[in-house]
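Hi F.,

I've been meaning to write this up properly since the lab meeting, where we talked about keeping a consistent format for the predictions we share between groups. The idea is simple: the sequence comes first, exactly as it goes in, then the structure tokens exactly as they come out, then a line or two of notes. No screenshots and no reformatting. I'm using this chain as the first example so we have something concrete to point to.
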Amino acid sequence: MKLANIEINLTGNSGVLIEAEGKKIYIDPYQLKETQKKADIVLITHPHYDHCSIADIEAIVKKGSVVVIPPDCQSKIARIKQKVDMQIVELGDEITIQNIKIQAVPAYNLNKNFHPKSERWHGYIIKFENIQIYHAGDTDLIPEMSKLVGFHNLIALLPVGGNYTMNAEEAAKAASIIKPKLAIPMHYGVAAGSAEDASKFIELCKKEGIEAKIT
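Output, unedited:
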């Protein structure tokens, strides 16, 4: 999917490849195809196997790739054979990598124990000149999402699979709060959820007057 000069494509589960400003940015790569473009930046939301997959990260990094992680992913990334630039960030941190601003924002469960708030795991906001991309991470509909209201030209990638994260209805409610320029469903078809959940999310968003697309 191309928006202005930015291309966004889901790569499976919560995995995303963003191509912009001559950079290739992966988020939570998992079960990638054998042939993949090499990464300039890799963002990891938390240490679960389907988000911090060492095999997939090793397949896409090159010398000097920047890998951004929460603190408890450090031991995993340290095992990567290729020499990468590991950047450890805490919630609320905003860093600039190759002229791209990246902010770590909260992602957690409210009434289940898969992603406790105490772990301080991440979603990310990636800030380009004209577009900002919010990858929600593995999360429920949390109060901190209201802080995204008013973000200019925001693209929101929201989990819809249920069980471990929001389901389609909850994700659509999140979209109605955030009011992004475009909402994209993710985290379905692998660990939880199905294509039907993504389609339901699209329909519910459209009822709220929010543009939503599957990529």
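Notes:
The CA atoms of residues 7 and 19 lie 5 Å apart.
The helical segments are 54-60, 74-77, 168-178, 195-207.

If this format works for you, I'll send the rest the same way.

G.
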